[in-house]
Specification:
Blueprint (H helix, E strand, L loop, with lengths): L4 E7 L3 E6 L4 H11 L7 E5 L2 E2 L18 E6 L4 H29 L2
Parallel strand pairs: 1-5
Antiparallel strand pairs: 1-2, 3-4, 3-5
Length: 110
């Protein structure tokens, strides 16, 4: 683990990034998160058209990473206001569905 690797990135992290001697995908995501000053959970990393799992056990070597590997880094941060609105809409839909079932049951009563 003493060798360093320089990876080319595009997206939330752009340019050449010296990832040092990281060995797992989880370490890579943490390294990229430090570069863009965000939480590692907010990043999606794509290499070779595949979304990389943020796993501490998956090694870069097993995925075939080399100095020529190109990464696309995407920041996915959900807005709390949007989440609250979606939750409110889901509750309203559930209520409407429940009222529809009650109406249908009431219509079938003699």
């Amino acid at each position: 683990r003493s060798r360093t690797m320089l990876l080319r990135c595009a997206g939330a992290v752009s340019g050449a990034v010296d990832v040092g001697d990281v060995a797992t995908v989880g370490e890579l995501v943490v390294c990229l998160a430090k570069r863009c000053a965000c939480d590692a959970g907010e990043l999606k990393v794509i290499a070779g058209g595949r979304l990389l799992p943020a796993s501490e056990t998956t090694t870069l070597e097993s995925l075939g990473f080399s100095a020529t590997t190109r990464l696309v880094v995407s920041r996915v941060r959900r807005d709390p206001a949007i989440e609250a609105q979606a939750k409110k809409e889901a509750l309203e839909q559930a209520r409407a569905d429940r009222l529809g079932r009650i109406e249908k049951a009431a219509e079938t009563l003699p």
